[in-house]
Specification:
Layout lengths: L2 E6 L5 H14 L4 E5 L4 H5 L8 H10 L1 E4 L13 H8 L4 E7 L12 E7 L3 E11 L2 E7 L2 H17 L4 E6 L7 H17 L4 E6 H10 L6 E4 L1 H15 L8 E3 L4 E4 L17 H18 L2 H19 L13 H13 L1
Parallel strand pairs: 1-2, 1-3, 3-12, 5-10, 8-9, 8-10
Antiparallel strand pairs: 4-5, 4-11, 6-7, 11-12
The structure holds adenosine-5'-triphosphate (ATP).
Length: about 350
Protein backbone atom coordinates (compact mmCIF):
# COMPACT_ATOMS: atom_id res chain seq x y z
CA UNK A 1 0.00 0.00 0.00
CA UNK A 2 1.36 3.42 -0.94
CA UNK A 3 1.43 5.97 1.91
CA UNK A 4 1.71 9.73 1.55
CA UNK A 5 4.10 11.02 4.19
CA UNK A 6 5.03 14.64 4.80
CA UNK A 7 8.81 15.04 4.92
CA UNK A 8 10.38 17.98 6.76
CA UNK A 9 14.16 17.80 6.30
CA UNK A 10 14.84 20.57 8.86
CA UNK A 11 18.28 22.18 9.07
CA UNK A 12 21.75 21.48 10.52
CA UNK A 13 22.28 17.72 10.17
CA UNK A 14 18.59 17.37 9.23
CA UNK A 15 18.96 17.23 5.42
CA UNK A 16 21.86 14.73 5.70
CA UNK A 17 20.08 12.28 8.00
CA UNK A 18 16.82 12.70 6.05
CA UNK A 19 18.52 11.85 2.74
CA UNK A 20 20.17 8.79 4.29
CA UNK A 21 16.90 7.65 5.84
CA UNK A 22 15.00 8.02 2.56
CA UNK A 23 17.65 5.97 0.77
CA UNK A 24 17.46 3.19 3.36
CA UNK A 25 13.65 3.15 3.34
CA UNK A 26 13.61 2.91 -0.47
CA UNK A 27 16.15 0.06 -0.33
CA UNK A 28 13.87 -1.76 2.10
CA UNK A 29 10.94 -1.43 -0.32
CA UNK A 30 8.91 1.12 1.64
CA UNK A 31 6.36 2.61 -0.75
CA UNK A 32 6.12 6.24 0.33
CA UNK A 33 5.01 9.27 -1.63
CA UNK A 34 7.08 11.98 0.06
CA UNK A 35 5.34 15.35 0.33
CA UNK A 36 8.24 17.65 1.12
CA UNK A 37 7.69 20.81 3.16
CA UNK A 38 9.99 23.11 5.10
CA UNK A 39 10.07 24.46 8.63
CA UNK A 40 12.44 26.66 10.61
CA UNK A 41 15.51 28.25 9.03
CA UNK A 42 15.04 26.11 5.90
CA UNK A 43 11.56 27.62 5.43
CA UNK A 44 12.95 31.16 5.64
CA UNK A 45 15.70 30.25 3.18
CA UNK A 46 13.07 28.86 0.81
CA UNK A 47 11.36 32.27 0.80
CA UNK A 48 8.62 31.70 3.37
CA UNK A 49 7.69 34.59 5.64
CA UNK A 50 7.00 32.21 8.49
CA UNK A 51 9.29 29.71 10.24
CA UNK A 52 6.29 27.42 10.46
CA UNK A 53 4.54 27.90 7.10
CA UNK A 54 0.80 27.23 7.04
CA UNK A 55 1.24 24.87 4.08
CA UNK A 56 3.51 22.64 6.19
CA UNK A 57 0.85 22.43 8.91
CA UNK A 58 -1.93 21.88 6.39
CA UNK A 59 0.00 19.07 4.71
CA UNK A 60 0.43 17.22 8.02
CA UNK A 61 -3.26 17.67 8.79
CA UNK A 62 -4.15 16.33 5.35
CA UNK A 63 -1.81 13.32 5.29
CA UNK A 64 -1.83 12.53 9.01
CA UNK A 65 1.79 11.45 9.24
CA UNK A 66 5.12 13.25 8.98
CA UNK A 67 8.80 12.37 9.26
CA UNK A 68 10.70 15.38 10.53
CA UNK A 69 14.37 16.32 10.76
CA UNK A 70 15.57 18.68 13.50
CA UNK A 71 15.03 22.44 13.33
CA UNK A 72 17.49 24.75 15.07
CA UNK A 73 16.17 26.81 17.97
CA UNK A 74 18.17 30.03 18.53
CA UNK A 75 19.57 30.29 22.06
CA UNK A 76 18.76 33.29 24.26
CA UNK A 77 16.78 35.20 21.61
CA UNK A 78 15.32 34.91 18.11
CA UNK A 79 12.24 32.95 17.10
CA UNK A 80 10.58 30.46 19.45
CA UNK A 81 11.17 26.74 18.97
CA UNK A 82 9.61 25.36 15.77
CA UNK A 83 9.62 21.88 17.25
CA UNK A 84 7.58 23.07 20.23
CA UNK A 85 5.28 25.22 18.07
CA UNK A 86 4.53 22.31 15.74
CA UNK A 87 3.63 20.02 18.64
CA UNK A 88 1.37 22.68 20.15
CA UNK A 89 -0.30 23.68 16.89
CA UNK A 90 -1.20 20.09 16.01
CA UNK A 91 -1.87 19.12 19.62
CA UNK A 92 0.66 16.30 19.46
CA UNK A 93 0.43 15.85 23.19
CA UNK A 94 2.20 12.53 23.71
CA UNK A 95 5.89 12.12 22.93
CA UNK A 96 7.20 8.56 23.01
CA UNK A 97 10.94 8.00 23.15
CA UNK A 98 12.08 4.39 23.36
CA UNK A 99 15.60 3.94 24.71
CA UNK A 100 17.06 0.48 24.12
CA UNK A 101 20.48 -1.11 24.20
CA UNK A 102 21.72 -2.12 20.78
CA UNK A 103 23.78 -5.17 19.92
CA UNK A 104 27.06 -3.87 18.63
CA UNK A 105 27.00 -0.65 20.68
CA UNK A 106 29.00 -1.19 23.84
CA UNK A 107 27.85 0.93 26.76
CA UNK A 108 28.06 0.76 30.54
CA UNK A 109 24.81 -1.23 30.87
CA UNK A 110 23.35 -4.13 28.87
CA UNK A 111 19.65 -4.70 28.25
CA UNK A 112 18.45 -1.18 28.88
CA UNK A 113 14.83 -0.99 27.77
CA UNK A 114 13.07 2.22 28.78
CA UNK A 115 10.34 4.34 27.24
CA UNK A 116 9.93 8.01 28.07
CA UNK A 117 6.42 9.39 27.69
CA UNK A 118 6.67 13.17 27.67
CA UNK A 119 3.81 15.66 27.91
CA UNK A 120 4.37 17.78 24.83
CA UNK A 121 2.13 20.84 25.04
CA UNK A 122 2.64 22.74 28.30
CA UNK A 123 4.75 22.86 31.50
CA UNK A 124 7.66 25.33 31.61
CA UNK A 125 8.01 24.64 27.89
CA UNK A 126 5.00 26.91 27.39
CA UNK A 127 7.81 29.49 27.24
CA UNK A 128 5.72 32.20 28.90
CA UNK A 129 8.29 34.60 30.30
CA UNK A 130 7.90 38.11 31.63
CA UNK A 131 10.36 40.80 32.49
CA UNK A 132 8.89 42.22 35.69
CA UNK A 133 11.51 44.92 36.06
CA UNK A 134 15.20 45.32 35.22
CA UNK A 135 16.96 42.16 36.41
CA UNK A 136 13.77 40.30 37.35
CA UNK A 137 12.25 37.68 35.04
CA UNK A 138 9.46 35.23 35.73
CA UNK A 139 8.78 32.03 33.76
CA UNK A 140 5.34 30.54 33.99
CA UNK A 141 4.80 26.80 34.26
CA UNK A 142 1.44 25.79 32.86
CA UNK A 143 -0.36 22.66 34.06
CA UNK A 144 -3.97 22.04 33.10
CA UNK A 145 -6.16 19.19 34.27
CA UNK A 146 -6.96 18.39 30.64
CA UNK A 147 -3.32 17.93 29.58
CA UNK A 148 -2.24 16.12 32.77
CA UNK A 149 -5.18 13.73 32.58
CA UNK A 150 -4.67 13.14 28.85
CA UNK A 151 -0.94 12.34 29.14
CA UNK A 152 -1.47 10.06 32.13
CA UNK A 153 -4.12 8.11 30.25
CA UNK A 154 -1.84 7.97 27.21
CA UNK A 155 1.08 6.64 29.29
CA UNK A 156 -0.96 3.88 30.95
CA UNK A 157 -2.62 2.91 27.69
CA UNK A 158 0.78 2.81 25.98
CA UNK A 159 2.22 0.65 28.78
CA UNK A 160 -0.64 -1.84 28.83
CA UNK A 161 -0.90 -2.14 25.04
CA UNK A 162 2.80 -2.99 24.84
CA UNK A 163 2.93 -5.38 27.75
CA UNK A 164 4.99 -3.07 29.91
CA UNK A 165 5.08 -3.73 33.65
CA UNK A 166 5.42 -0.33 35.28
CA UNK A 167 4.76 3.39 34.82
CA UNK A 168 6.86 5.77 36.92
CA UNK A 169 6.11 9.48 37.10
CA UNK A 170 9.17 11.72 37.59
CA UNK A 171 8.09 14.91 39.37
CA UNK A 172 9.07 17.68 41.74
CA UNK A 173 5.79 18.00 43.61
CA UNK A 174 7.56 18.71 46.90
CA UNK A 175 8.44 22.14 45.47
CA UNK A 176 5.93 22.60 42.65
CA UNK A 177 3.07 21.41 44.79
CA UNK A 178 0.25 22.62 42.56
CA UNK A 179 1.50 22.02 39.02
CA UNK A 180 3.42 18.77 39.49
CA UNK A 181 0.88 17.90 42.18
CA UNK A 182 -1.88 18.02 39.54
CA UNK A 183 0.10 15.69 37.28
CA UNK A 184 0.47 13.23 40.17
CA UNK A 185 -3.19 13.45 41.10
CA UNK A 186 -4.24 12.66 37.54
CA UNK A 187 -1.82 9.74 37.25
CA UNK A 188 -2.93 8.28 40.60
CA UNK A 189 -6.61 8.64 39.72
CA UNK A 190 -6.31 7.00 36.34
CA UNK A 191 -4.17 4.21 37.69
CA UNK A 192 -6.58 3.51 40.53
CA UNK A 193 -9.75 3.69 38.44
CA UNK A 194 -8.65 2.13 35.16
CA UNK A 195 -5.30 0.36 35.37
CA UNK A 196 -4.98 -1.03 38.89
CA UNK A 197 -3.76 -4.62 38.66
CA UNK A 198 -2.86 -4.20 34.97
CA UNK A 199 0.34 -2.23 35.39
CA UNK A 200 2.39 -1.17 38.40
CA UNK A 201 2.53 2.54 39.29
CA UNK A 202 5.34 4.48 40.97
CA UNK A 203 6.30 8.08 41.67
CA UNK A 204 9.84 9.43 42.07
CA UNK A 205 11.26 12.87 42.75
CA UNK A 206 13.07 13.67 39.55
CA UNK A 207 16.41 14.59 41.10
CA UNK A 208 16.73 11.28 42.96
CA UNK A 209 15.28 9.43 39.97
CA UNK A 210 18.07 10.75 37.73
CA UNK A 211 20.62 9.42 40.18
CA UNK A 212 18.91 6.02 40.24
CA UNK A 213 18.71 6.00 36.45
CA UNK A 214 22.45 6.35 36.00
CA UNK A 215 23.12 3.86 38.81
CA UNK A 216 20.73 1.22 37.50
CA UNK A 217 18.47 1.90 34.50
CA UNK A 218 16.83 -1.51 34.93
CA UNK A 219 14.84 -0.09 37.85
CA UNK A 220 12.54 1.69 35.39
CA UNK A 221 10.21 0.77 32.55
CA UNK A 222 7.85 3.48 31.23
CA UNK A 223 8.81 6.92 32.58
CA UNK A 224 6.18 9.64 32.40
CA UNK A 225 7.23 13.30 32.68
CA UNK A 226 6.00 16.80 32.13
CA UNK A 227 7.49 18.61 29.15
CA UNK A 228 10.80 20.04 30.39
CA UNK A 229 11.68 17.04 32.57
CA UNK A 230 10.90 14.78 29.61
CA UNK A 231 13.30 16.72 27.41
CA UNK A 232 16.15 16.37 29.89
CA UNK A 233 15.48 12.80 30.92
CA UNK A 234 15.35 11.79 27.23
CA UNK A 235 18.92 13.00 26.65
CA UNK A 236 20.09 11.44 29.91
CA UNK A 237 18.60 8.09 28.87
CA UNK A 238 20.03 8.45 25.35
CA UNK A 239 23.45 8.57 27.02
CA UNK A 240 22.80 5.15 28.56
CA UNK A 241 22.53 3.39 25.18
CA UNK A 242 25.01 5.15 22.90
CA UNK A 243 23.82 8.74 22.63
CA UNK A 244 21.53 10.93 20.58
CA UNK A 245 22.48 9.20 17.35
CA UNK A 246 20.47 6.12 18.35
CA UNK A 247 17.43 7.56 20.15
CA UNK A 248 14.21 7.83 18.12
CA UNK A 249 10.96 9.55 18.94
CA UNK A 250 7.35 10.06 17.97
CA UNK A 251 4.82 12.79 18.77
CA UNK A 252 1.25 11.57 18.82
CA UNK A 253 -2.01 13.48 18.78
CA UNK A 254 -5.51 12.16 18.29
CA UNK A 255 -5.41 12.85 14.54
CA UNK A 256 -1.77 13.22 13.48
CA UNK A 257 1.63 11.78 14.31
CA UNK A 258 5.04 13.34 13.66
CA UNK A 259 8.11 11.13 13.90
CA UNK A 260 11.44 12.77 14.76
CA UNK A 261 14.69 11.88 16.46
CA UNK A 262 15.33 13.13 19.99
CA UNK A 263 18.45 14.99 18.85
CA UNK A 264 18.63 18.58 17.68
CA UNK A 265 20.28 20.05 14.60
CA UNK A 266 23.81 19.36 15.94
CA UNK A 267 25.44 22.44 14.38
CA UNK A 268 28.90 21.24 15.49
CA UNK A 269 28.85 18.42 12.92
CA UNK A 270 26.37 19.77 10.34
CA UNK A 271 27.35 19.62 6.68
CA UNK A 272 30.27 17.26 7.35
CA UNK A 273 28.65 13.93 6.50
CA UNK A 274 29.34 12.81 10.08
CA UNK A 275 25.85 12.56 11.58
CA UNK A 276 24.39 9.22 12.53
CA UNK A 277 21.12 8.77 10.62
CA UNK A 278 20.04 5.87 12.87
CA UNK A 279 17.92 7.97 15.24
CA UNK A 280 15.83 9.31 12.36
CA UNK A 281 15.77 5.88 10.71
CA UNK A 282 14.52 4.33 13.96
CA UNK A 283 11.88 7.08 14.12
CA UNK A 284 10.86 6.02 10.59
CA UNK A 285 10.60 2.43 11.84
CA UNK A 286 8.21 3.70 14.54
CA UNK A 287 6.28 5.40 11.74
CA UNK A 288 6.09 2.14 9.79
CA UNK A 289 4.67 0.38 12.85
CA UNK A 290 2.18 3.23 13.33
CA UNK A 291 1.06 2.90 9.70
CA UNK A 292 0.78 -0.87 10.11
CA UNK A 293 -1.46 -0.42 13.17
CA UNK A 294 -3.62 2.47 11.97
CA UNK A 295 -3.97 1.51 8.29
CA UNK A 296 -3.83 -2.23 8.69
CA UNK A 297 -0.85 -2.58 6.36
CA UNK A 298 1.21 -5.61 7.35
CA UNK A 299 3.84 -4.87 4.68
CA UNK A 300 4.88 -1.96 6.89
CA UNK A 301 5.52 -4.37 9.79
CA UNK A 302 7.64 -6.62 7.58
CA UNK A 303 9.68 -3.66 6.29
CA UNK A 304 10.16 -2.31 9.83
CA UNK A 305 11.44 -5.74 10.94
CA UNK A 306 13.85 -5.95 8.00
CA UNK A 307 15.28 -2.51 8.70
CA UNK A 308 15.74 -3.32 12.38
CA UNK A 309 17.51 -6.60 11.52
CA UNK A 310 19.71 -4.79 9.00
CA UNK A 311 20.88 -2.10 11.43
CA UNK A 312 21.54 -4.69 14.11
CA UNK A 313 23.68 -6.62 11.60
CA UNK A 314 25.51 -3.46 10.55
CA UNK A 315 26.29 -2.49 14.14
CA UNK A 316 27.46 -5.99 15.03
CA UNK A 317 29.74 -5.96 11.97
CA UNK A 318 31.24 -2.66 13.11
CA UNK A 319 29.62 -0.72 10.26
CA UNK A 320 28.81 2.41 12.21
CA UNK A 321 29.31 6.15 12.36
CA UNK A 322 31.90 8.00 14.42
CA UNK A 323 29.61 8.76 17.39
CA UNK A 324 29.38 4.99 17.97
CA UNK A 325 33.11 4.41 17.61
CA UNK A 326 32.99 3.50 13.91
CA UNK A 327 34.51 5.22 10.91
CA UNK A 328 31.64 5.42 8.42
CA UNK A 329 30.28 8.68 7.13
CA UNK A 330 26.53 9.30 7.01
CA UNK A 331 26.21 8.29 3.35
CA UNK A 332 28.49 5.26 3.81
CA UNK A 333 26.32 3.97 6.63
CA UNK A 334 23.24 4.45 4.45
CA UNK A 335 24.97 2.52 1.66
CA UNK A 336 25.97 -0.29 4.04
CA UNK A 337 22.33 -0.55 5.12
CA UNK A 338 21.10 -0.47 1.53
CA UNK A 339 23.47 -3.32 0.58
CA UNK A 340 22.17 -5.50 3.40
CA UNK A 341 18.55 -4.71 2.60
CA UNK A 342 18.95 -5.40 -1.10
CA UNK A 343 21.37 -8.32 -0.85
P1 LIG B 1 18.17 20.69 20.94
O1 LIG B 1 18.23 21.35 22.25
O2 LIG B 1 18.17 21.60 19.75
O3 LIG B 1 17.16 19.59 20.85
P2 LIG B 1 20.26 18.87 21.68
O4 LIG B 1 20.54 19.38 23.03
O5 LIG B 1 19.49 17.59 21.57
O6 LIG B 1 19.57 19.96 20.74
P3 LIG B 1 22.07 18.33 19.58
O7 LIG B 1 22.10 19.46 18.63
O8 LIG B 1 21.26 17.18 19.15
O9 LIG B 1 21.66 18.80 21.00
O10 LIG B 1 23.54 17.85 19.81
C1 LIG B 1 24.09 17.43 21.06
C2 LIG B 1 25.38 16.66 20.80
O11 LIG B 1 25.07 15.38 20.27
C3 LIG B 1 26.29 17.35 19.78
O12 LIG B 1 27.64 17.19 20.15
C4 LIG B 1 26.00 16.60 18.51
O13 LIG B 1 27.06 16.59 17.62
C5 LIG B 1 25.65 15.20 18.99
N1 LIG B 1 24.66 14.59 18.08
C6 LIG B 1 23.35 14.88 18.04
N2 LIG B 1 22.74 14.18 17.09
C7 LIG B 1 23.68 13.40 16.51
C8 LIG B 1 23.67 12.44 15.44
N3 LIG B 1 22.55 12.12 14.79
N4 LIG B 1 24.82 11.84 15.11
C9 LIG B 1 25.96 12.13 15.76
N5 LIG B 1 26.05 13.02 16.77
C10 LIG B 1 24.92 13.65 17.15
Amino acid sequence: MRHSVVLIPGDGIGPEVTEATKHILASAGADFAWIEHQAGIAALEAGSESVLPPETIQAIIKHGVALKGPCTTPIGGGFTSINVALRKTLNLYGAVRPVRSLDGVKTRYDNVDLVIVRENTEGLYAGIENKITEGVITSLKVATYEACHRIAKFAFEYAVSRGRKKVTVFHKANILKLSDGLMLKCARDIHEKEYYGKVEYQEHLIDAACMRLVQDPHLFDVIMCENLYGDMVSDLCAGLVGGLGVTPGANYGDEQAVFEAVHGSAPDIAGQNLANPLALLMSAVMMLRHLAATRDDQDCTAIADRIRNAYNECLLAGEKTKDLGGDLHTDQFAEAMAKRLQG
